[in-house]
Amino acid sequence: MEDCIFCKIIEGKIPGDFVFKDDEIVAFKDIHPLTPTHLLVVPIKHIGALTDLATTDNTLMGNMIAVANKVARDERIADSGYRLVINSGKHAGQLVAHLHIHVLGGRQMSGDFD
Ligand code: 5GP
Ligand code: ZN
Fold first, then answer.
1. Which atom of ligand 1 is nearest to the CA of 96?
2. Any idea which ligand is nearest the CA of 102?
3. What is the secondary structure of 91-110 as a DSSP string?
């Protein structure tokens, strides 16, 4: 999709530090990490937000969680623990309108989500 920063990263038009790629999902490092390890798991197909998911995307979402778990293991944050976050819409603070799962880890986090 034009003017979507994550589509541009996926298409190689702007650089991304990729840790995973297959035919439907990529994962790359967040440019402004909030934790020592901060990855983004992103579908190659442009989906704007959780509210844009179709029931036919259920398998894709399951696969995205599987990829999040795999990259957490690969980046060695699985044993110490990690957090998956999906922001959807304005009140959640979604900045990039291309669905993504944040994979956060590498330090102790509070139970506070704000
Ligand atoms: P959101 O607030 O939409 O859930 O999260 C968007 C995330 O994308 C933010 O954590 C932000 O740092 C990250 N981000 C924004 N622009 C870029 C970029 O050009 N490259 C990478 N790797 N991450 C980006
Ligand atoms: Zn996009």
1. 3
2. 1
3. TTT--SSS--EEEEESS---
